[in-house]
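Supplementary Text 2. Reproducibility record for the structural model of the 94-residue chain.

All settings were left at their defaults, and a single model was retained for analysis rather than an ensemble. We include the record here because the model underlies the residue-level annotations in Supplementary Table 4.
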Amino acid sequence: MTLKSALPERLSEIRARLGQGLARIDPHHRLVGRPVTYKVIGGRTFEVTYKDVARIEEAEILGVKKLIGEPCFCSITPRTAETLIVRFVVPLTR
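Retained model, structure tokens:
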């Protein structure tokens, strides 16, 4: 199976794991209920972005990485003076 043919299934699995497990690892609802986008960039990277996050703790970041279930990176940037953008980037080259 090629990367391209397995990609939709792989992305659906990641989205399902996040949808089913996020409430469990995010008891303070810092990510649950926030606007989230999923985007494939250049066919090589999958990006999950949470917007309007008031704050985030390391335990929640690690929990999301565990739910994603693949090596990934996290970046946090300011959106406004009170909110953050939390972005998880998953390389799709495996």
